[in-house]
Amino acid sequence: MSTVSVLFVCLGNICRSPTAHAVFQQIVNAQELGSKIQVDSAGTGDWHLGHAPDARSTATAAERGYDLSDLRSRLVTSADFTQFDYIIAMDTSNLSNLQVMRPSEFSGELELFLNYTAKERYSDYTEVPDPYLGGADGFELVLDMIEDASLGLLNHIKAHIQQSDMAGG
Ligand code: 4NP
């Protein structure tokens, strides 16, 4: 089975993308795919470099059994396009910033995270909304969306891995 790498990107890398990083990693581990799928997260903004995730994200995630405490904010760089196969943006602003950075030779997937959601209830949303300046409800919604889109993304990646293994790639 081929190995793949996934990078989640938001603005500050302290709320949405570290939550996606921890949730997706936990699902990957639960399916015993940890040696096949590498996971990381980064931000397009540099205000929180080296900082742990926002306490509200950490607490909301911890209530559902996800541990964000070891993660630290870092900037997304053009080198990430060489290293990662899937670069997953939380919102359309993150996506536009990434599209500007994208080298022409990047052959992976650069997509909005909610493109992988399976649930009808999120069909009104195209993006994981920035919870930073809002209330507690925003953090719960972000986590709900991330749990759902993580399952969809993992199924998508597994289907691609199977296809490329069958093609001998
Ligand atoms: P995130 O949330 O992009 O989900 O990490 C934000 C965190 C910090 C800021 C904005 C969004 N900020 O402006 O500092």
Per-chain topology:
Elements: E1 4-10, H1 16-30, E2 37-43, H2 55-63, H3 80-83, E3 86-89, H4 92-101, E4 109-112, H5 136-166
Parallel strand pairs: 1-2, 1-3, 3-4
The protein binds 4-nitrophenyl phosphate.
Residues 10-16, 47, 130, 132 line the site of 4-nitrophenyl phosphate.
Characteristics of this structure?
169 residues, alpha/beta, Rossmann fold, four-stranded parallel sheet, 5 helices, 13% strand, binds 4-nitrophenyl phosphate
Would you write up a description of this structure?
The chain is an alpha/beta fold and 169 residues long. The chain has one domain: Rossmann fold (3-Layer(aba) Sandwich), CATH 3.40.50. 41% of the residues lie in helices and 13% in strands. It contains 5 helices and 4 strands; from the N terminus they run βαβααβαβα. A 4-stranded parallel beta sheet has the order 2-1-3-4, with helices on both faces. Strand 1, helix 1 (16-30) and strand 2 form a beta-alpha-beta unit. Helix 1 packs across helix 5 and helix 2 crosses helix 5 (136-166). The relative contact order is 0.21. The mean pLDDT is 95. 4-nitrophenyl phosphate is lined by residues 10-16, 47, 130, 132. Residues 10-16, 47, 130, 132 line the site of 4-nitrophenyl phosphate.
Strand content: 5-15%
Which spans have pLDDT < 50 for at least 5 consecutive residues? none
From the helix content, strand content and strand pairing, which structural class follows? alpha/beta
List the helices and strands in order: EHEHHEHEH
Total strands: the figure is 4
Number of helices, where a helix is a run of at least 4 consecutive DSSP H or I residues: 5
Q: What is the CATH first-level class name?
A: Alpha Beta
What is the assigned CATH homologous superfamily? Answer: Response regulator
